[in-house]
User: Fold this.
Amino acid sequence: MSALVRDRENLRALRPILATFNVVGSSLKLFPTAAQQEGQPMHKINLGEKFSKISEYYKPHIAGELNGQMIKLVKANTEFIWHHHDHEDEMFLVVKGRFRMEYRERELGDAGPHDASLRERHEWIEPGEFIIVPRGVEHRPVAEEEVWIMLFEPASTLNTGNVVNERTQQHLEHV
Assistant:
């Protein structure tokens, strides 16, 4: 038996075992997916405990997954960057503190697309409140003091949307 055939057989035998783990980046994590937990007892998650493990601001952590969506936890204490998401809506739920969601909207003038101006507006999000930012809407969260935010968004969502800079988090940690 050739080494190539043996390697393929070994890989085929490992597939059921590897399927019980999430692959994050280039490493295996011991976090079962929601599909693998089907039929198993649910375990509650204490948000205060999870947030106490987060020390960096604007660095989202994964707290759970369901139906292709990530439940992410993030702390903020300043303004974030202006950005938008081409393909994803985002939901921001305030657990503790408050923040202001700022928006930029294009308003067309009488002369058509070349006669457009930007209009900025904002909305305060208080504890126990949430807001959904539709895809394509330019926005930035602004916190004047520490705020704990739970995000619901597709797994593909990059925290800085269409902008890639030093605040972009390509690979998220579980908390």
Observations:
- DSSP finds two helices and eleven strands in the chain.
- Residues 1-39 form one domain.
- Helices lie at 3-18, 47-52.
